[in-house]
Amino acid sequence: MLNYIWSGLIIGSLLFALTVDTQELAENRFRNDQALPVTLEFPDGYTPEARRQPVEIRIDSARYREMFGTDAVPESSYAGRLVQTEEGRKVEFDPDASFPEPLATIESYHATDDNPALRGILTTAPSASPGTPQLEAAVQFEPVRFRKLRSIAQAALDFAETAASLALSLIGVLGLMLGLVKIGEEAGLIEALTGVVQPLLNPLFPNVPEDHPALANISLNLLANVFGLGNAATPLGIKAMEDLQSLNPADDTASDDMVMLLALNTSSVQLVPPALLVSIMGLQVNQLFFSITLATLCSTVAGILGTLALHQVPYFRATAPHRNADAEDSADETSDADEREI
């Protein structure tokens, strides 16, 4: 079910992004085929042979609003640089400058770690003699296309990298934790802890016999969750569910014990932070010890009380496999007793 939900969210986000990108292209929101008129002022005078030289870039507010169809107003001037190469002349704005929309989006779309500045090509700039203090020109910014789809693709790659890093960092933590559990199992500590926990579990799982292996797997599953070993708890929980299913009279309906295990496994108390959280936060996770313990304790109590309450609801009582099996056995015994009397 979760796979379908995630697939639906991904497909929905892609369709939304494609719709927005198509609308922006149809409206030509970023004016990819137009140049913005600007005035370049040279504090030290224009130097034709200089590869880079400082400039003050002035943008007329009226022209800006008319070109982009917006009410936003740019600043009167921006600091920047004029870069002259064999390919042409380019203008780079100061990386710390603040721009109105849509220039802010154009800047973020083309920003890189090496060059985060807004930049564009001078398309109409007459030749200037050395020492010229001012130059009328027009700046053609790099085109912006399919920015939403690009953002989704970039986010997917970033999170894939994060997932790989977390997976590698978890190997050591999980290896240590699972090794400690194995040592405890070989030393008999796990059996001792299981013996302590089982008396507490018997009232919660009334349909499970005392010596049934399901209680041992349930105990180990809960203990693994308590010590933050979520990955180790998963196979133990699956095995416990299989054992509970062997006691279930119905093949297509979960028993009350199986529902209780699911509630406990989902809301388990945790005395040790999860390994994933440890790998992310390191020693700083100790600051969350009390909060994690209190939150998971409250969730466990709420899960137990909620499950016990739902067990008493007539609708769920009528579909409980063990109750139906007991009712059928009682009916058979009554029928046999009636037949003997006859």
Question: How do the helices and strands line up, and which of them pair or pack?
Answer:
Elements: H1 2-27, E1 36-41, E2 52-58, H2 61-68, E3 77-85, E4 88-93, H3 103-110, E5 119-122, E6 134-141, H4 147-186, H5 189-201, H6 213-226, H7 230-246, H8 256-266, H9 275-281, H10 289-311, H11 314-319, H12 321-341
Antiparallel strand pairs: 1-2, 1-6, 2-3, 3-4, 4-5, 5-6
SSE series: HEEHEEHEEHHHHHHHHH
Q: State the helical fraction.
A: 55-70%
Strand arrangement within the widest β-sheet reads 1-2-3-4-5-6
DSSP helix count?
A: 12
Q: Describe the largest sheet.
A: 6 strands, antiparallel, barrel
Mean pLDDT: 82
Low-confidence region ranges: none
What overall form do the CA principal axes indicate? Answer: elongated
Total domains: 2
Our measurement of the CA-to-CA distance between the termini, rounded to an integer number of angstroms, reads: 55 Å
Tally of strands: 6
Strand content: 5-15%
The gyration radius over C-alpha positions equals 34 Å
Describe the overall structure.
By secondary structure, the protein is of the alpha+beta class. The chain has two domains: 31-145, no CATH class; 169-341, no CATH class. It is built from twelve helices and six strands. It has helices at 2-27, 61-68, 103-110, 147-186, 189-201, 213-226, 230-246, 256-266, 275-281, 289-311, 314-319, 321-341; strands spanning 36-41, 52-58, 77-85, 88-93, 119-122, 134-141. A six-stranded antiparallel barrel has the order 1-2-3-4-5-6. Strand 3 and strand 4 form a beta hairpin. The radius of gyration is 34 Å and the shape is elongated. The two termini are 55 Å apart. The model has no long low-confidence stretch (mean pLDDT 82).
